[in-house]
Amino acid sequence: MMCRKQLSLALFGLMVGLFLAPAGMADLIGYWPLDGNASDLSGNAYDGAAQG
Description:
Blueprint: H1 2-25
């Protein structure tokens, strides 16, 4: 019985986390995939300059 309660609580927490996760993507400022250059792929043109 205790294991079932813990599993239910864990699944509920996972569902709440998945529901709230897309809200953070609305404020995306820049996306740099770190693939060898400093180009911003978010569309906001916050390109950098690779050094080193």
